[in-house]
Amino acid sequence: MRKSEILAPAGSREALKAAVLSGADAVYFGVGNFNARKNADNFSTEELSETIKYCHSRGVKVHITLNTLIKDTEIDEAAETVKAICNAGADAVIVQDLGVARIVRTVCPDIAMHASTQMTVGTKEGLQLLKKMGFSRAVLPRELSLNEIKALAEDSPIELEIFVHGALCMCVSGQCLLSSLLGSRSGNRGLCAQPCRLPFKVLGGTGHDLSLKDLSLINNIKELSDLGISSFKIEGRMKRPEYVSAAVTACKASLQGSYSENMQTDLQNLFSRSGFTDGYFKGELGRNMFGYREKENVQSATKELLDKYAKIYEKEKPRYKVNFDFHGKIGEKAELTACFENTSVNVFSENKCEEPLNRPISVERINEALLKCGGTQFEAGEIKTDTNIDYTLPVSQINLMRRSAIEVLADRIGEIPSRKIFPCPIHTEIPAKNANEIYCRFDSAEKVPENLDADKIFVPLNTPNDVVLKYGYSVEIPHGMFGNEDKVIKMLSESSAEYAFCHTLDAVAIAKKCGKKIVASSSMNILNSLSADEAKTLGISEMILSCECGLERANKLSAPIKKGVFAYGRIPLMLTRNCPVKNGKTCDECNRQSSITDRKGISFPVRCNMGYSEILNSRPVFMADRLGEIKNSDFLFFNFTVETKDEVNKIMESYYNETGPDGDFTRGLLYRGVE
After folding, report:
1. 577 found inside a domain
2. 296 with 409, same domain?
3. H/E run at residue 324
4. CA distances from 102 to 239, 403, 484, 665 (A)
5. What is the CATH number of the domain that holds 530?
6. pLDDT tens across 326-367, in order?
7. Cα(616)–Cα(592) distance, rounded to whole angstroms?
8. For 572-615, what is each residue's pLDDT tens digit?
9. Averaged pLDDT of the chain
């Protein structure tokens, strides 16, 4: 029967030890610059081999996080990192960037590739696309309910992994630009400053209406295991080792049916934000899911509690039974064979066996020496020795043989697999272009002005088909689906639109299924030339570059498909399933159009649709007066959200005439970029 994996974070050497010695089946950690926790105590490529040997010799798999977006200038470094990871013997890499996926698939096709939750894949169609891309596992979004997880687990084409404990972001992973826009520290680049944990308020809300309690599904692990979930992931590469030990211990207990209320209390005291939530899992969204780090949460991790879990990983515990076969003969060196499963090693004594002066060494003395495996990952199993012993040998020699045999056996178990390494892929070079087309996206077809001079107009998928047909509109697949994909597929199949506007790989897979041409939005996080190449391979015909790309990089980026730049509109900062506005008023009172305010009094619009919400930037990007600085792009993208029809006409007039803005605006990240 398949064994479910407990996957633990290892943000430091001590946390790695805590995870392994507390009984984790696998660990994940970062190497170098390309992982989503750059501020963790990540491992260097130089120490990687020994770290992986340490884990493998104890039966623990190693997953390396390469789950950030990379720039064109970092492609060669990323490829070298992949080579180092593969040569060191890691079991899998966790990937977000489409370009990094291409690097891994090209440089080391033998290593397993896992799709990070940052890839935002949560539909069967998306999972099938991941398999075609070479992924063997997907880390599902945290926002899914039990029934939605169950539906994905049925006949999934790849393994599924879910987070069962740890921090819960308000935004769907991979779809957050809040930290980027507010401080140029990108969550997609591993440097999220967590501004969502600061006070953001809606009228009648909690005062921290973008901050959720920590997630804990540990009590549901057995149920999820029965569904076929392969791996249970603990969040916390920035957490202390005692936290890691406690979470691993609790997960193991849950799988065995012995998880207790005391364990949950310990976990909450070690780290929580106003306690835990399982809201998405049960489909119980709302105010009870919100929480933040309060004074009592900080003070609850007492020294006594920390010591309790530090003791769990203080000493090595036996994981394997090793069988010993000991033989000696006068005038020859004694031989010890140590066997574990199909692996065996032979070692010999330094001295030769001698004729005893008084009496030979006894079987009991030999057995006693071989039983002393304490402090290692082994314990003695069956011991065989000579039936008629006529020799003697110092016990110190037998102890030395035992230690040597165990060391060699551990090395054999932790041996690095041999893998072929290939050169880094080369991206397609395309001649420079000029942005001479205009694409407009509207949140309602009713806002589209008559006689709008635009090359493509995107309207919501639920726009009546006669309107789409009459005006030749393209349609937008909803940014979040959360179990609504069958409804989306039906609507898209019946639509006469030629193009589908896609925010995620889920949407791309569905658009392909429905036979639509694909325009990828900026939410697809295409930041480098290899990602653009991969987008073409996926069937994407046009794309908008990531809002984190920056104008200088955007102008230089080569793409084998048409590319555009986000030139006007409010950038979506967050995609959420739990609407913050509902903390203060009902959907009817809100009319799906409200706002949230930060501690400085700045207001951010919130717009809702089909069971999800988008939080928009406080000001629109405006580039009408700097169009000459946008080069090597095919089209300009305009995102109309809060604007009236008259305001749309005025804005378009500014762009036609290349005049300055009227009112508050931002250049977004076009000039300052991200770290």
Report:
1. no
2. no
3. strand 320-327
4. 31, 44, 30, 37
5. 3.20.20.70
6. 999 999 999 999 999 989 999 999 999 999 999 999 999 999
7. 13
8. 999 999 999 999 988 888 877 899 999 999 999 999 988 899 99
9. 94
For the chain, the domain total comes to 3
> Could you tell me if 9 and 67 lie in one domain?
yes
Q: Is residue 612 part of a domain?
A: no
CA angle 129, 135, 136 (to 5 degrees): 115
Residue 275 CB contacts under 8 Å (≥ 6 apart), including other chains:
213, 214, 268, 291
User: Cβ neighbours of residue 442 under 8 Å, at least 6 residues apart?
Assistant: 448, 457, 458, 459, 460, 640
Q: Note whether 288 and 220 are same-domain residues.
A: yes
Indicate the pLDDT class of residue 1, thresholds 50, 70 and 90. very low
Closest to 576 in 3D by CA, of 44, 175, 161, 88: 175
Mean pLDDT of 505-511: 98
The span from the CA of 387 to the CA of 403, in Å, is 23
Q: Parallel, antiparallel, or unpaired for β 612-616 and 572-576? A: antiparallel
Rounded CA separation 256/270 (Å): 22
* CA nearest to 95, candidates 76, 72, 120: 120
- Which pLDDT score is estimated for 41? 67
The verdict on residue 346 lying in a domain is yes
Calculate mean pLDDT across residues 443-458: 96
What sign for the dihedral angle of Cα 455, 458, 463, 465?
Answer: positive
Bridge partners of 139, per DSSP, are: 161
- 422 within a domain of the structure (yes/no): no
The per-residue pLDDT for 374 is: 87
The Cβ of residue 249 has, within 10 Å, a number of other Cβ atoms equal to 21
- Pair 484, 401 in one domain: no
Measured between alpha carbons, how far is 674 from 486 in angstroms, rounded to an integer? 37
Considering the domain architecture, whether residues 81 and 141 belong to the same structural domain is answered as: yes
**125 and 267 housed in the same domain:** yes
Cα separation of 424 and 620, whole Å? 39
**Is the CB of residue 578 less than 8 Å from the CB of residue 596?**
no
User: In terms of domains, do 232 and 374 share one?
Assistant: no
- Residue 520's nearest CA partner among 584, 581, 477 is 477
For 618-662, the pLDDT digits (tens) are: 999 999 999 999 999 999 999 999 999 999 999 999 999 999 988
E-assigned strand segments in 419-554:
437-442, 456-460, 474-476, 499-502, 517-520, 540-544
CA atoms within 13 A on the CB side of 300: 17
Residue 330 DSSP code: B
Residue reference for tokens 């991979």? 174
Chain centroid to Cα 199, Å, comes to 26
The pairing of strands 437-442 and 61-66 is unpaired
Q: Is the pLDDT of residue 386 over 70?
A: yes
Tens digit of each residue's pLDDT (9 = 90 or more) over 86-140 = 999 999 999 999 999 999 999 999 999 999 999 999 999 999 999 999 999 999 9
Position 188 scores a pLDDT of: 93
Domain carrying residue 13: 5-168+212-310
| Greatest C-alpha distance within the chain | 111
Amino acid at 125: E
Cβ-based neighbour number of residue 404 at 10 Å: 17
Asked if residues 540 and 150 have their Cβ atoms less than 8 Å apart, the reply is no
Same domain, 285 and 156: yes
- What string of DSSP letters covers 52-112? HHHHHTTT-EEEEEE-S---GGGHHHHHHHHHHHHHHT-SEEEE--HHHHHHHHHH-TTSE
Which of these three, 413, 446, 464, is where a domain ends? 413
pTM beyond 0.85: yes
Domain's final residue, options 279, 310, 341: 310
